[in-house]
Amino acid sequence: MPEIILEDPDGTFAMLRDSVAAFAQRFDGAKSLRARRGAGRDLDRDIWSAMAEAGWLGLMLPEDLGGAGLGLSEQAILSEALGRALITEPLAQLSVFSGTLLAGAEPGAERSRLAEGLISGSLVVSPVWQTTDGGFAVVTATADVAGVTLSGTADLVVAAASADVFLVLARSKDERVLISVPAGSDGLSVSERPTVDGATLAQVRFDGCPVAAEQVLARGLLGNDLLDDAIQATRLTLAAELAGAGSKALEATVDYTKERVQFGKPIASFQAIQHRLVDMWSVAEFSCAAIVNALERLADEPGKPAALAVLAAKARAGDAAVDITRKAIHLHGAMGFTDECDIGLYMKRAVNLNATLGNPAQLRLQFVALERAA
Amino acid sequence: MAEQQDWNSLSDTEFRKIFRSWVDENCPMRLRNMRKQRPVFDELADWYHALADKGWLSPVWPQEYGGMGLNAAKHIIYVEEWARLGCPRIPDHGIGLVGPLLIEFGTEAQKAHYLPRILSGEDVWCQGYSEPGAGSDLASLRTAAVRDGDSFIVNGQKIWTTLAHCANWILLLTRTSRDEKVKQKGITVLLVDLTSPGVTVRPIENLRQEADFCEVFFENVRVPAENLVGEVDKGWNLAKAVLGHERIFLGAPSRPEVALSRLEQLAEARGAFADPAFVARYARLRLDLYDLGSAFERFAKQLRDDGTLGADVSVLKIFCSELYQKITEETLDIAGEEARFLDDLPTGNGEVDAMNLYLDSRALAIFGGSNEIQRTILAKAVLGLPS
């Protein structure tokens, strides 16, 4: 089945894949997802701690912050494998996005504490920065004697109920600042909405929420590359997870259609079915190729070529995974429409990730706008 | 004979530079970016001979036979630069098909006789595979070759024989025996002189109203037995073997690339980029092309590393041909009322051959194994789906 193909001279990638496979033996993805959904939780802390123990949460964080100091290639291989195994804890946002912001923040005690907690799994650090249309939320930080006071609303916050700390991107006069806000702070409220794949996204409101001055982690984030870097890294991580989910859904569907007998033959022997499966396989191949291209551009041609490549990879992988999983449901017949059958969970997961940080239509328009900009 | 060097020992960048600069200097401008997909030999004889004199006509033949001896990685560069400079496709069945077949399976006498005549342009070859009743199901071919003393007597008909009317030799798949169970058995490869008595070539006008392919009729045509390639009845695998890594080029992004640049040119001229609905459609096509490049590189890398390709490479041909069609369809859409014109559309900044490309784009999804055949092959070979 299609996968991200990268040279692996020292066997790191194979090791990462093996470690996810072993992990999935302990924590079955579909089963965990159903359990978490049934309990109405936005994060499974046991799984999250196990992921920390596996060394995955600090994969890309620099070594001086206690991370593994690895790159996006390793992250992509890991996330692809997690996507395959349907391990759905929101690593892209909580580890990659939050981690990239922390790595770029100013050195200090609070940053070290958060990085350490993020890596060990003891602190869930949820980024807070978007509106429901994916743009920047308006959260205002007003300076006062004690520090700053936050007011405003943000949406699309993952693991908000489980979060120990919110990493808030706020506006202070004409600059953007990054602020660490403890969960449960005065004037802070969280209201969750369910997502299709059994997790939640929350609206987080700041109603005169006081924050100490030392909680401000970074300033001057307007026109600074940090946020772009975080978005780019997260998009590529999501693309890899989508590619993994798509590839696994294809595999499951190939297996199912080979077993399912109607009219005295496996339905996979019918040409109408075969051609659909081939089309699913094709877009899965293209997703993997697009992700490898993005990783190569990031390494060789940072800047515009890399930015274009990441937009293309997320768009392709998202389109492909949603397309594959939808067809996968159809090819599973009535079984595919049941909650009992895992294939539907792949589709729901794909829909969630596809909509995260830009859907394919939006990303394609961004690509064209960026490419055509003089 | 031109002097050669070990091209494969050069870095890719070096080779690309050397190849590009000579081709750019020597390929006549009148032949660049031609509308015609397949110019005939007489139109580009000077360019053909220039390449032959330089020793660059035949990229993959070993140097001892007058080729460049390029490995797959360098061959890809050769083809890429060729496309980038807008060079015309040359009548290449001798170079791409007959040469490699003889080099691998031919006798010493055949190699000594035919290979130099290909390089000199003395022999122009065509490929006699498809028949009226054997298209997608090629192995059911029926053109009969019957042994008669030191000859074969050939009777039958070929069709869709590209540029047969400009060729003097044909590589012919014939039926020498019939196995009821395995129709691939009993096929024999013959080299046939098209000037032999009993051969009739009738050009067929294609959708673009060009005579590009032909019907070829054989009526008691006597072919010397020494023109047999390989063994009698065992020609099917020969015919398949020479396809090799060249299959990757059927899915190379150059065709949709040219088409997209024409679409952009027309869209600029007609102000279509101000229309958000067009931009959304354009963005999809642009990203498809971009991703085709990434996918092509995925297979090119495999070729560089392993020297071979699997059946999975035909995914490129399917995607490429369907994208080519979508782009040319969009080009006609934004041409509006003008979409009816056969001739090129003026833009104030050069002309756009919208209809030419639209018609041309119908072909790629059909030839070289239709996309449906390709999907069926992928289903079996890659996904292991049952019959």
From TrEMBL, chain A:
Listed A to Z, the keywords are: FAD, Flavoprotein, Oxidoreductase
The Swiss-Prot or TrEMBL record lists the needed cofactor(s) as: FAD
**UniProt superkingdom:** Bacteria
- Which InterPro entries does this chain map to? Acyl-CoA_Oxase/DH_mid-dom_sf, AcylCo_DH-like_C, AcylCo_DH/oxidase_C, AcylCoA_DH/ox_N, AcylCoA_DH/ox_N_sf, AcylCoA_DH/oxidase_NM_dom_sf
Domain Acyl-CoA dehydrogenase/oxidase C-terminal: start-end pairs = 229-350
* SUPFAM superfamilies according to UniProt: Acyl-CoA dehydrogenase C-terminal domain-like (SSF47203), Acyl-CoA dehydrogenase NM domain-like (SSF56645)
Q: Which residues form the Acyl-CoA dehydrogenase/oxidase N-terminal domain?
A: 15-88
What the record says about family reads: Belongs to the acyl-CoA dehydrogenase family.
Q: What is this protein called?
A: Acyl-CoA dehydrogenase
Species the sequence originates in: Hoeflea alexandrii
From TrEMBL, chain B:
Which Gene3D superfamilies would you find in this protein's record? Acyl-CoA dehydrogenase/oxidase, N-terminal domain, Butyryl-CoA Dehydrogenase, subunit A, domain 2, Butyryl-CoA Dehydrogenase, subunit A, domain 3
Q: Residue limits of the Acyl-CoA dehydrogenase/oxidase C-terminal domain?
A: 233-383
Where the record annotates domain Acyl-CoA dehydrogenase/oxidase N-terminal, the positions are 13-122
Which keywords, in A-to-Z order, does the entry hold? Answer: FAD, Flavoprotein, Oxidoreductase
Cofactor(s) needed by this chain: FAD
User: Keyword Oxidoreductase, does the record have it?
Assistant: yes
InterPro entries named among the record's database cross-references: Acyl-CoA_Oxase/DH_mid-dom, Acyl-CoA_Oxase/DH_mid-dom_sf, AcylCo_DH-like_C, AcylCo_DH/oxidase_C, AcylCoA_DH/ox_N, AcylCoA_DH/ox_N_sf, AcylCoA_DH/oxidase_NM_dom_sf, Mycobact_Acyl-CoA_DH
Q: What are the Acyl-CoA oxidase/dehydrogenase middle domain coordinates in residue numbering? A: 126-221
List the PANTHER family hit by this protein, alphabetically: ACYL-COA DEHYDROGENASE (PTHR43292), ACYL-COA DEHYDROGENASE FADE29 (PTHR43292:SF3)
The name under which this protein is listed is Acyl-CoA dehydrogenase
Q: Give the originating organism.
A: Hoeflea alexandrii
